[in-house]
Design brief:
The protein has five helices and 36 strands. The protein is mainly β.
Length: 498
């Protein structure tokens, strides 16, 4: 497989010459030159804070990579004091890190993963967005791994599995918000996205931009009670305001993933547009460029970014208000993007990308409606007037069919909608039709007092799974339902004459 390039490709001498030339031309100031002198020091190479810069160089997470069609991995859950941003805090870690290993696999691979729980709360694991079986020992979110226990998961990815960015996290009933906020989340990459790019872009630098947030209480990440609107520290790959380097004209692949528990991001990079090539792990049919990207908790975008003129700017999240019953998330700087070094020819971004199924004219086997509501105190959350009960089946769908669902939000705050096992096509949002060339998701925002219409093709797996708001505080407080995907009826089971 092609390994991502994450280290700067220029030598110190080449950088110095480039800076001298750019400086004589007036393109690079004294501060940026100081940054380059610092950035190529041993401290920068180790990821420690770089003297004269605003933070450490961005470190992509370590990786566990499949070999021979199999990824064998072990994940240990334990509470440890670890670096979180620029502090040492007690967190709930995977393999002793707040930002755990990325699991990198290919379509058709098998994932053999053993999880061991060394905490005093039960937990489990959900591979968010992967199209795998919801039955044990695969993506069964109904199991509980208690203290001292281990559980062996086995996931078989279909050979035609979409290639892009996914993630893994706790889905323990009533505890998912606390455990994800405490640190239990990491990235999954299904390899192969690059092969859809033109040859000139298949070996570009790739970065994971995993967005995690924390609230601090003493020397620990606060997990309970967790207030969504409380002051929240934002990190990238567990780092505080890291530095991302890009050359003028260079094209990079950034995997943007909101792997926190509750909050929204509205990403913006002044002077640069995000060219979206995949969303929620699924390559788009047509690449589209966006000035901002709204990323609810759990959503992901794979984007191409291109370096502009030499200088420094900030990757930021803009203010976002989820409504009068919701929360206001303020502006925050996430990372410093430094453009410098030897300029590169600006590549042409393709427009067409990957053919995908369009359900716009599909035969609809059934139509379903679900509605989000909540009590006035914002302490209990409902789907169709009921809170989650893992023993109850709320919806039943048939394998091989296409259904149309209307997801309404009769509350005064935004919610999100996430479906396990299968992706869906977003048809409309509050009556406005969506572009079918980039409308396949596993997590979407449902505006307050609005609705989304989606279509789902149940393609490969049967079993009991769930759908829910992915603001995990809301999920834990009731806003989740059980969906049972059942086999199609046999000839003997069909009603005579039909």
């Amino acid at each position: 497989m092609t390994r991502p390039i994450t280290r700067f490709p220029l030598t110190l001498t080449a950088i110095g010459l480039a800076l001298i030339v750019a400086g004589l031309a007036g393109g690079v100031g004294h501060t940026l030159a100081e940054f380059y002198r610092a950035a190529y020091s041993p401290a920068a190479e180790s990821g420690r804070p770089v003297p004269g810069s605003v933070g450490p160089l961005l470190q992509d997470p370590p990786e566990l990579v499949s070999r021979g069609g199999v990824l064998k991995a072990a994940i240990v859950v334990e509470r440890r004091k670890v670096p979180v941003g620029d502090r040492q805090l007690y967190a709930t870690t995977y393999n002793g890190a707040y930002m755990p290993p990325t699991l990198r696999v290919r379509p058709g691979d098998r994932i053999d993963l053993t999880m061991t729980n060394k905490t005093d709360k039960y937990t489990n694991l959900h591979t968010h967005g992967l199209m795998v079986s919801p039955r044990a020992p695969a993506d069964d979110i109904f199991i509980s791994i208690k203290y001292g226990q281990s559980y062996h998961y086995a996931y078989q990815l279909p050979r035609d599995h979409p290639t892009g960015t996914y993630w893994y996290h706790s889905h323990a009933d009533m505890l998912s918000a606390a455990q994800v906020a405490g640190g239990e989340s990491g990235i999954v990459v299904v390899e192969g996205l690059r092969r859809h790019l033109p040859p000139a872009l298949r070996h570009i630098t790739e970065h994971t931009i995993a967005l995690k947030d924390d609230q601090v209480e003493g020397d620990a990440i606060k997990t309970s009670p967790l207030s969504i609107g409380a002051p929240t520290n934002r990190t990238v790959n567990g780092q505080q305001n890291p530095v991302i380097h890009i050359r003028p004209g260079e094209t990079q692949l950034w995997r943007l993933a909101n792997i926190g528990a509750n909050i929204y991001y509205k990403l913006h990079l002044p002077g640069t547009r995000f060219h979206v090539i995949a969303q929620d792990g699924v390559p788009v049919r047509r690449i589209h460029a966006e000035d901002t990207l709204l990323i609810p908790a759990a959503a992901r975008f794979d984007v191409l970014v291109q370096g502009g003129a030499a200088g420094t700017t900030r990757l930021e999240t803009l203010p976002y208000n989820t409504g009068p019953a919701g929360n206001q998330f303020p502006q925050a700087d996430l990372a410093t993007v430094v453009t410098g070094g030897t300029p590169m020819p600006r590549a042409t971004i393709p427009s067409g990308f990957v053919p995908q199924e369009d359900l716009s004219n599909a035969k609809i086997a059934a139509r379903k409606t679900m509605v989000y509501t909540e009590n006035t105190a914002g302490t209990v959350f409902y789907i169709n007037g009921r809170t989650f009960d893992p023993k109850r089946t709320d919806f039943t769908s048939t394998l091989g069919t296409v259904e149309e669902w209307t997801v309404g939000n009769n509350s005064d705050e935004d919610h999100s909608f996430h479906l396990h096992t299968d992706h869906f096509q977003l048809m409309s949002t509050s009556g406005k039709a969506e572009d079918p060339s980039h409308s396949v998701y596993d997590t979407v925002n449902v505006p307050r007092r609005g609705a989304v219409v989606i279509r789902v093709h149940f393609t490969k797996f049967t079993g009991r799974t769930v759908l829910h708001c992915h603001i995990l505080n809301h999920e834990d407080m009731g806003m989740m339902a059980v969906l049972d995907i059942v086999p199609p009826p046999t000839d003997q089971q069909k009603t005579p004459g039909k």
